[in-house]
Specification:
Strand order of the largest sheet: 4-3-2-1-8-7-5-6
Distance between the termini: 67 Å
Shape: globular
Number of helices: 27
Radius of gyration: 30 Å
Strand content: 5-15%
Largest sheet: 8 strands, antiparallel
Structural class: alpha+beta
Helix content: 25-40%
C-alpha cells in the first residue's frame, strides 16, 4: 500500500528529510475515480488505485543515446471523446464526478527524452476480453523506434498549457480545454522565447505536424505540504527546451551512434549521390545534349574564397554546349545559384528543366536569363521552348503554410462540441482552407508540363528559388509520363532526385530547427520559412492513386508512413537543407547516415506488406528491359582505362560512366502516360493521413482498407488457381472454388499422410518447384462467407493506423495476407490482369 502523499511519484520534487514531519502519512484504501484528480478539497491529495501505485516503476523503452529528461504521472485523454455509449468508444460526461468519466482517460507515466515524448500506460486487468485482443495489436502498424503512445520531438508543432485558475477545477475539464466559468486558460508556448511558465499547469495540449492531437492532465499538489512539484510545469519546461532545438546538432540523430548496415544493395532505388547515378538517368532518357558536372571536379567550387558565392548541389546536369565556368558565372545572377538544371527528358529531345528567378538586384537586366534560355534551346535543336512561370500561377510557401494550418485545425478539434460545430459546416470550412484548391493547381500545371513534353517541346519550370514548387510540378510531371516512377523503387528514386539531391530545404520547411529570434523579430518571421510543401506533393500523388488505382505499386499506407518518417531524426533523408550540411555533419560530428528507404529498419515484413498495391502489375517488358540495361551498363560502364583514379581535375575516373558510349534512344515508353482530372470536385480528402487520429470518425468494417484486403484475398485465390492450371495439379485449389461450385475437396483423408518433398517440374524448360502445403497451414478464405472464420467487420477504416479493439480480426488474417503476398510475388510472371476483369 502507498500513502496518500504523491510527492515521490514519477521522480517529481520532494520536500526533503527536513520536512518529512510535515508529510501526510494517511493511507487510503478507497481510490477516487481516475477522471477526478482530487481526493478532498482540504488535503488536495491524489490517491491512486492500489493496482496503479507503481507508476514510478514504469519507464519508456530507450534507444542507444536516449536519455530521460523529465517524467511525471499523468492521464492521457482521447483527442475527441466518442459520443456513443454502446460502441467501442466511451461516453462523454460534462461532470467530472460522473461515474462514466473514468472511461475517458488512461493513467500512466509521461516522459520527455531527448528523442521523443513517451506515455507508458498502466492498464488495469479488469476486462478479460482484452487478453483476446492483445495479440491482434500486431496486425496494426508498429514502428521499431516509436511506440503507439509515443511521438518524436521533431513532430511537435504547438504546445498549449491549460493553467488552473480555480481551486475547484477539474482535470477532466482542463484536459478538454473547457474555459467556462473561468476554470482554465489556454496559452501557447512560443519556441523562440525562453518565457517563464507561471501558474499551475493542469493539462497540456500538444499539436503534432502529422495531424495528431495529444491531451494530458496532471496531478496537483499542495506546495506547502509537498514543496514546489508542479508536474505539468516540469513536462512543459522540458518540452519547450528539447522540442525546439536552435541548432541542428542538438537533434537526437547526433546522439544515436548505433551502427547502420545498409540493405539497399538489392534495391532498385537510385540515391543520385554520385555522378554515375545522373549519367544512368541521362542514358535512360536518351538526353545526349546534356552533361553531368560534379562540384568536386570544378576548381572554382573548391576554392574556399569563391565557393561561398555558389550554392549548387554536388552533382547537376547542364547544357553540353556551355562550359562549366561560364555556366557558374551566369548562375550568380539567379537566386541560390539555381540556373538551368536538367531533370528529365521525354521522347527524342524534349527536356524538363528547373530554373530559379533572377535575384532582385539583377531583375532589371534580363540578359543572363535570356542567355540561359538560349543554351537550353540549343539542346533541343534550337526549337522554341515553353517557360512555365510557377510563381505567378501557384501559391507561395506562406500560402501553403496557411492552408495547412487551417486544414489541421479542422482535423484536430479539441472537444465534441467543437467537432459538432465544424461538422455542421464542414464543406464550407474545408473550402476556406484552400488546401484542395492548391492540390488542384499543382495537378493542373503538372498536366500542362507533361502535355508540353509529349508534344516534343522543352518545358522550363521557373520559380523564385527553384527548390520548392518546382519540386512538386517536376515530380508530378514525371509521374504522369514515366511508369518507372510509379513503382516503389522508381518513386523513391524520384524523391531522391527531385527533393534530396537537388536540395529542397527540408530543415527549414519542416521546422526541424528553430533559430533564436532576431532583434525586433516576431513569430511571423519564424514561420515564413516553414511550409509543408512535401505534404502537398504527397497529397497530389494520393489523388493520382485514387484515379488510377492499378498504375501505382505503392499504396496510400506507404505515402502516410512516408509523411510520418519526415519527423524521424534518426534517418537523414528529410533532415537537411543541402548536401553540404549533410557532409559537414558526417565530417564534424560523425553523424551516422541512414536513408529512410531502408524500411526494414523501422518496420517488420508484416508492416511492409501493406506498402504494396495488390492490383498493380508490372508490365511484361519492364523486368527484361531493366535487366538488359543493367547488363549493358556493367559491360560498358568503364571509361578510359588510362585515366587517373580520383584526381581533382575534370578527368573522369576509370569507373565513371560515359554517356557517349551508349545508345542515344530513350527507353522511356511513350504510350503509358496519365491524364488526371484536376478540378476540385474530382478531388477527395486524404482521410487516412488527416483523420486517422480521430476515433469518432473510425468506421469499423468500412473504408478503403476493406476493399484492399478483399482484393488481396481475391488475387490470392486467382494466383492459386492459375498455379494449379500451370502445373496441372489441383490439390491446392482455394476453398472459395469448392464453396462456389458446391463440390467437396478430394482426398480429404490425406491429411494424416506424411508430407511429400517439393516436386520439381519443368515448364518451358525452366525448373520450378511446387510447394506442398499441408491442410493445417492452408488458411481458409472467409470472405465468401462473412459469417465464417474470417471476420473483417471490426477492422478500423484507417487500418493499419487505427486502434485495435477486442473482437478484431483473428490470427488467420495475417497468415492469409502473408500467403497472398508470397503467391502474388511468385506468380507475377504469369498473373494477368484480364483474369480479374
Amino acid at each position: 500500500m502507498a500513502t496518500g502523499g504523491g510527492g515521490g511519484l514519477g521522480g517529481a520534487g520532494s520536500a526533503g528529510n527536513a520536512d518529512h514531519h510535515k508529510r501526510n502519512t494517511f493511507t487510503s484504501y478507497v481510490a477516487p475515480l481516475p477522471g477526478d484528480l482530487r481526493a478532498t478539497a482540504d488535503t488536495n491529495e491524489w490517491c491512486l488505485p492500489s493496482d496503479l501505485r507503481d507508476v514510478h516503476m514504469a519507464k519508456p523503452r530507450l534507444l542507444q543515446g536516449e536519455q530521460i529528461v523529465a517524467s511525471a504521472p499523468a492521464y492521457m485523454y482521447s483527442p475527441i471523446d466518442p459520443m456513443d455509449n454502446n460502441g467501442s468508444g466511451s461516453s462523454v460526461s460534462s461532470n467530472p464526478a460522473d461515474g462514466n468519466s473514468h472511461k475517458e482517460a488512461t493513467f500512466g507515466l509521461l516522459s520527455v527524452t531527448n528523442f521523443k515524448l513517451a506515455f507508458v500506460p498502466l492498464h488495469a486487468k479488469r476486462n478479460p476480453a482484452n487478453a483476446v485482443a492483445a495479440p491482434l495489436v500486431d496486425l496494426y502498424q508498429e514502428n521499431a523506434y516509436v511506440g503507439r503512445n509515443e511521438i518524436t520531438l521533431n513532430n511537435i508543432d504547438h504546445i498549449y498549457t491549460i493553467a488552473e485558475l480555480g481551486r475547484a477545477a477539474s482535470a477532466l475539464q482542463a484536459a478538454r480545454g473547457m474555459a467556462n466559468h473561468g476554470i482554465s486558460r489556454r496559452k501557447k508556448l512560443e519556441p523562440f522565447k525562453q518565457q517563464n511558465i507561471s501558474g499551475r499547469i493542469a493539462a497540456l495540449h500538444i499539436v503534432c505536424k502529422n495531424f495528431r492531437l495529444l491531451k494530458f492532465a496532471f496531478q496537483q499538489q499542495d506546495s506547502k505540504m509537498f514543496g514546489a512539484s508542479d508536474q505539468g510545469k516540469l513536462i512543459a519546461s522540458a518540452l519547450v527546451r528539447f522540442a525546439y532545438p536552435m541548432r541542428h546538432d542538438l537533434s537526437f540523430a547526433y546522439a544515436h551512434r548505433e551502427p547502420y548496415y545498409s540493405t539497399l544493395g538489392a534495391s532498385g532505388t537510385s540515391m543520385y549521390a554520385s555522378k554515375n547515378d545522373w549519367a544512368r538517368e541521362l542514358i535512360r532518357c536518351g538526353a545526349t545534349e546534356w552533361q553531368v558536372v560534379s562540384s568536386a571536379s570544378v576548381q572554382l567550387l573548391q576554392n574556399p574564397l569563391q565557393a561561398g558565392k555558389y550554392t549548387v548541389p554536388p552533382h547537376f546536369v547542364i547544357p553540353k554546349s556551355c562550359s562549366v565556368d561560364r555556366f557558374l558565372d551566369l548562375s550568380r545572377a539567379f537566386c541560390d545559384s539555381r540556373a538551368a538544371f536538367w531533370v528529365y527528358s521525354y521522347g527524342n529531345s524534349a527536356a524538363l528543366v528547373r530554373l530559379a528567378e533572377l535575384q532582385p538586384a539583377a531583375q532589371q537586366d534580363t540578359k543572363s536569363e535570356n542567355v540561359m534560355l538560349e543554351l537550353v534551346r540549343k539542346c533541343d535543336g534550337g526549337r522554341q521552348l515553353k517557360l512555365l512561370q510557377l510563381t505567378d500561377r501557384l501559391p507561395s510557401i506562406q500560402d501553403v503554410l496557411r492552408a495547412y494550418q487551417k486544414l489541421r485545425r479542422l482535423c484536430t478539434p479539441e472537444t465534441p462540441e467543437k467537432f459538432m460545430l465544424q461538422d455542421d459546416k464542414y464543406l464550407g470550412l474545408l473550402e476556406k482552407t484552400n488546401w484542395l484548391f492548391y492540390v488542384s493547381l499543382c495537378l493542373r500545371y503538372a498536366s500542362e508540363a507533361a502535355a508540353t513534353l509529349r508534344s516534343g517541346v522543352t518545358c522550363v519550370l521557373q520559380e523564385s528559388n527553384g527548390r520548392d514548387l518546382c519540386c512538386v510540378i517536376s515530380s508530378l510531371a514525371q509521374l504522369l509520363l514515366d511508369p518507372h516512377f510509379r513503382t516503389t523503387d522508381g518513386f523513391q528514386s524520384l524523391v531522391q532526385k527531385e527533393w534530396v539531391a537537388l536540395e529542397h530545404p527540408f530543415q527549414r520547411r519542416l521546422g526541424h530547427v528553430y533559430p533564436s529570434q532576431p532583434a525586433g523579430g516576431n513569430a511571423e518571421m519564424l514561420e515564413s520559412e516553414q511550409s509543408p510543401v512535401f505534404l502537398l506533393f504527397l497529397d497530389c500523388v494520393w489523388q493520382l492513386q485514387q484515379q488510377f488505382t492499378d498504375e501505382f505499386e505503392f499504396t496510400q499506407t506507404y505515402l502516410t508512413t512516408l509523411w510520418d518518417s519526415c519527423f524521424m531524426p534518426i534517418f537523414d533523408t528529410f533532415q537537411f537543407d543541402t548536401q553540404a550540411q549533410r557532409l559537414k555533419a558526417v565530417r564534424d560530428s560523425q553523424l551516422v547516415l541512414r536513408p529512410v528507404w531502408d524500411w526494414g529498419e523501422q518496420f517488420s515484413d508484416k508492416d511492409k506488406m501493406f506498402f504494396s498495391n495488390p492490383l498493380f502489375q508490372r508490365q511484361r517488358g519492364d523486368l527484361g528491359a531493366q535487366a538488359a540495361a543493367a547488363a549493358h551498363r556493367r559491360s560498358l560502364a568503364v571509361g578510359n582505362k588510362g585515366a587517373h583514379g580520383s584526381g581533382t581535375g575534370s578527368t573522369p575516373s576509370r569507373n565513371t560512366i560515359n554517356p557517349q558510349l551508349f545508345a542515344t534512344a530513350s527507353s522511356v515508353p511513350q504510350d503509358r502516360f496519365l491524364q488526371p482530372a484536376h478540378r476540385i470536385f474530382d478531388l477527395q480528402v486524404w482521410d487516412q493521413c488527416y483523420y486517422r487520429w480521430l476515433p469518432i470518425l473510425d468506421i469499423r468494417g468500412g473504408g478503403q482498407p476493406q476493399v484492399d484486403l478483399f482484393h488481396r484475398l481475391l488475387l490470392s485465390n486467382i494466383a492459386k488457381i492459375q498455379r494449379c492450371l500451370e502445373f496441372q495439379t489441383f490439390d491446392d485449389l482455394p476453398e472459395a472454388f469448392y464453396e462456389s461450385t458446391g463440390e467437396s475437396r478430394p482426398n480429404q483423408q490425406t491429411g494424416d499422410k506424411p508430407e511429400k518433398e517439393d516436386e520439381a517440374e519443368f515448364v518451358d524448360g525452366v525448373e520450378r518447384r511446387r510447394k506442398t502445403t499441408t491442410k493445417a497451414s492452408t488458411p481458409t478464405n472467409g470472405l465468401t462467407s462473412m459469417n465464417g472464420n474470417l471476420q473483417l467487420s471490426t477492422l478500423s477504416s484507417f487500418f493499419p493506423f487505427g486502434n485495435p479493439i477486442a473482437g478484431d480480426a483473428p490470427h488467420q488474417l495475417y497468415d492469409i495476407l502473408s500467403s497472398s503476398s508470397e503467391l502474388l510475388m511468385e506468380t507475377s510472371s504469369f498473373l494477368d490482369k484480364s483474369s480479374i476483369v
